[in-house]
Amino acid sequence: MLDGKDMEGDLPPIINKRVENDGIVERDAYEALCRGEINPIRPEEERKLYCYLKMDNPFLKFAPIKVEILRHEPLAVLFKEVLSDKEIDIIKAVATPRLRRATVQNAVTGELETASYRISKSAWLKEEDHTVVARVNKRIEDMTNLIQSTSEDLQVANYGLGGHYDPHFDFAQADVIIKGGVKKKSDKLKIEMTQPERGGATVFNNLGTAVFPSKYDALFWYNLMRSGEGDLRTRHAACPVLLGVKWVANKWIHERGQEFTRPCGLDENVQEHFVGDLSPNYRPLNRT
């Protein structure tokens, strides 16, 4: 009978060399962040982070939303426990038969196509598909203070083993003209519906930060400055799932329709220091 060593001797060497030029210059930094090798938060910045109850509309007076500020520049927050298990089960059940391989937009042709740097399946849910979808959209409006009538449908994404999305921007590099106005993705909310045992973090390369999945919670950030310009600091990625499965519900909210909910400030550097902040002249202390 052959023992383990004899069997190993019959196996050819494993050759799995990385392609030297795979088109992603930030690959090493991206993979380090996925491993949890993040930039430590400076003490003076950590002191500015806090949690609070969001109660800035009449409904939220009775059902406040728990918010954790993760980062100020640019702002990123975690809305805590925003979905129930029953709602998650319904969303997954409605989405499952519609799941298809996720696509990206070709920068040259504008056509949608599959790509090796985005491995997942996704489905798009409209409010009329189920009352839970409409309820979640209203909840997102309460969370973000942003109008949902011009946002995209709720995207449900499934990342299996090895599923990932390499570093990318969510905002369009140029305005896309659609019927009724200009389409530019403004803000993103990502609700974690499951929690993989290993991997699956959302990482921001230019900031050296990572947010690991926590079930029921929603990660939110602004992709655009209040001036309407894309915030280059928001380049981000979905790390590979190493063990388990990852289900998320994504919501992209367009700039159009937010003229009064997120107006421009007095200069191009104005930005929020909490969700819903409409201060006309707020600027971070360390900006000149």
UniProtKB/TrEMBL annotation:
It comes from the Eukaryota. GO terms for molecular function: iron ion binding; L-ascorbic acid binding; procollagen-proline 4-dioxygenase activity. GO terms for cellular component: endoplasmic reticulum. PROSITE patterns: FE2OG_OXY. Keywords: Dioxygenase, Iron, Metal-binding, Oxidoreductase, Vitamin C. Its cofactor is L-ascorbate. Residues 150-255 form the Fe2OG dioxygenase domain. This is Oxidoreductase, 2OG-Fe(II) oxygenase family protein. It comes from Dictyocaulus viviparus (Bovine lungworm). The lineage of its organism: Eukaryota, Metazoa, Ecdysozoa, Nematoda, Chromadorea.
